[in-house]
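BACKBONE GEOMETRY TOKENS
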Amino acid sequence: MDALNTLGDFFNPILNYFQNGFDAVNAWQGIVVAILAVIVMRRWGQLLLVTFVAALVYLLVEHFWPIVTQGAELRLPYVTEPQFWHRLGAVYAGLLIIIAMFFAVKRVILGFRGAPAGEAKK
């Protein structure tokens, strides 16, 4: 019973991190960024890089949206502070889940349609 509590103590922070990241991007902005990332993505091998770029785009939109829409003060993101990197990691984790799910659906739909004209089936 002690081992189970120890495993739970080990995995709970990791699962909470992914849940917080998923909760952070589960809004219109995150869904739009994820859909655009899936449109750009062509194969599973691009998942990590495309998700990283999507996370950066998400944070840039999040930061500059009030400046564009509400005339807030123009300032750069505080990239030297740990909060920025924690936020980037949480957004990355959330987008990783969403983009992987959307890309899986895309592959299933394209699989039913057949492969694109220039791509041979293996």
